[in-house]
Amino acid sequence: MALPSFFFLLLSSTLLLALLAVVGGTTSHATFNIDEATIDDIQQSFRRGDLTSRALLEHYLNRTRALNPLLRAVIELNPDALRQADRADRERRRGDGKRRGGLHGIPVLLKDNIATGDRLNTTAGSFALLGSLVPRDSGVARKLRRAGAVIFGKASMSEWAHCRSWHIPSGWSARGGQGRNPYVLSAGPCDSSSGSAIAVAANMVSVSLGTETAGSIICPSARNSVVGIKPTVGLTSRAGVIPVTPRQDTIGPICRTVSDAVQVLEAIVGFDERDAEATREGSRYIPLGGYRQFLKKDGLKGKRLGVLRKVFLDSYDESIQKTFEEHFDTMRQRGGILIDDLEIANVESIIDPTRSGEFVATAAEFKMSLNAYLSELIESPVRSLLDVILFNDKHSNQERTKEFGQDFFLVAQNRSGLGAAERAAIANMGRLSTEGLERLMKEKQLDAVVTPDAIGSRVLAIGGYPGISVPAGYRRDGVPFGICFGGLKGSEPKLIEMAYAFEQATKLRTPPALKEHL
């Protein structure tokens, strides 16, 4: 049964101080720099005997104790994480860890809408779901456990994946408070997978999972100078994940490097009978031999990349445009073929959720899918969207959320299934995708389109297309920005090649300056 939140909420450092007193603090490893270490670095240190999973976890716990009161990235810690780390160490000593793969013994932080069938809560940042009991692990959590990963805890997020209200600040939830960008505290962390990106950027953990409906992996990854992969819809299971819309929802990794993100992606893709229709279709895109084979330093060579300027790059100031011109030169030097100044047909309609039909369809789909999720919970204070609305009304004063309202919830509650308007909206998005990105990529024979930050997220979202965000630089005020490689369904292998080659050619990520808080 999920224990009360005050056992695990990181609103103060009291719990972690006590926990660290039990485990004995952080182990020092003179020959190994845990901060910024990749999964491969960590596994090599495991094999040398310089590091254990317990020591790695203790380090992350210590860093979380120091930074979370400031950054609000972690909403809840797993009380069983140390036991899982110890089990990984025992398996490694017996030689059993090798067959598990690269995530064996690696702590992973999950966004708070990804269910785990353990003592962790799954609440989407809302007190309305505190104490609810899920029937089982989500599909992706189950795959992580099979890979031997240690479930570190749950990341904070924009409450209800930013679907409660348009007025709620990005990265805010009633349970977690306001997530803060570790580079510039006054800057927003961007969109709903905020805690997952903040924690990885601040080296509170090396691996996390986020979810995306329209920008919620790509945007926080770009804003926090980390790597995020938004997979093709259906490539990863959504079973056991608090939904927005099954038409667009996808689960993907947020890490510090492309290599780490690819290893996580490889562990979580595949068929799941509880999300059968989508994952059966998605499974046909999984390459024989997995995704790590596409981590190629020459991955840009011969690739045709479309540069989208109108509405996209042209929307940014001159300094960022200048930086992107330098990036384009780098791509050309690495053998990339850039097709410049391309336009997507009807792009203004695509990026406007009211004109595309995304808003109309998503409101109805959200109510239907959320009610279905809530009905399957073993125990829950709420069983429907209406219950959630009434809960929020009752507790808004205590949570200081009255001013935010719940306007999207109210719109969704007034929907009654997929009627003519919703079906027309879905058909319109299909037409916009076919005549937009798909036609452009086929006519120009593109391997990817390139856009800054998350400005192209809605193009990818309504078509179920994948994208990878890689650090691209820092604004004059220090806020990071990213570059997004986007493609058609199943194009992850090509996107990985290009993203990895770009990352290795530029290596732009620098950790945030947080020493004064440690």
In the CATH hierarchy, the architecture of the domain at 9-295 and 355-420 and 511-517 is: Alpha-Beta Complex
Instruction: Report the oligomer.
Output: single chain
What about the largest sheet? 11 strands, mixed
Please state how the strands of the largest beta sheet are arranged side by side. 1-3-2-6-8-7-12-13-11-9-10
Structural class label: alpha/beta
Beta-strand portion reads 5-15%
Domain Amidase: 56-495
Signal peptide: 1-25
Keywords: Signal
Protein name: Amidase
Feature tags:
alpha/beta; Amidase signature (AS) enzymes; eleven-stranded mixed β-sheet; 13 strands; 40% helix; disordered N terminus; AS_sf; signal; Amidase_dom; Amidase
Quick summary of this structure?
The protein has 518 residues and is α/β, with parallel strands linked by helices.
How would you describe the overall organization of this protein?
By secondary structure, the protein is α/β, with parallel strands linked by helices. It has a domain at 9-295 and 355-420 and 511-517: Amidase signature (AS) domain (Amidase signature (AS) enzymes, Alpha-Beta Complex). It is 40% helix and 13% strand. The chain has 19 helices and 13 strands. Strands 1-3-2-6-8-7-12-13-11-9-10 form an eleven-stranded mixed β-sheet, with helices on both faces. The chain has a two-stranded antiparallel sheet with strand order 4-5. Helix 14 (358-375) crosses helix 16 (407-413). The longest helix is centred in the last third of the chain and has 24 residues, at 420-443.
